[in-house]
Design a protein that fits this description.
3-stranded antiparallel beta sheet, 5 helices
Length: 182
Amino acid sequence: MKCKKISIAFSFDGNLINKLKYSWKILKNNFNINYISKNNCQPHISLCAGSIKEIDLEKLTIKLKELKFRKFKIRSPGAGIFISEKPIIFIRWETNSFIRNYRQLIKSKTRKFFIKKNFYTTDNLWTPRSAIAYKDTSYANLESIFNRLKFLFMKHTVEVNCILLIDCSKNKEIIIKKIKLI
């Protein structure tokens, strides 16, 4: 039985996407930080993740298409930092009723497909965020990074317009399906 590590995520378009991609260039060129930019398919908000049987991918896609979610706006107070062995820099998102309710519905409708769930997308640990830097960061240059990325440490609003089905089985994420919201 072949399995794939899958993430179900929301994606968004607009000016913030360009700012995030620009921040990845700054991090790579000035700080040699590129784990996320090299391995991430695009900025997104992961909702749930885990391992599923490869033969169930099409059924999972059909189930997600049946949901027919509407586009919605979500706000961010700006970038944040998780304190861990190596700091994680990310965009924080509000947990509004749309993202909370849509996430719960996606989880309940897709639960049977997941053989094993990703620990970080369990309810008690999940927070809506979009990664900017992870794994190759350090505390030594955090102040310099903050000064170069000040444009991310402010309020942002985006329109969530797609559900992404992302294959995380290999080092680089690959978008398998993109389901547009109505």
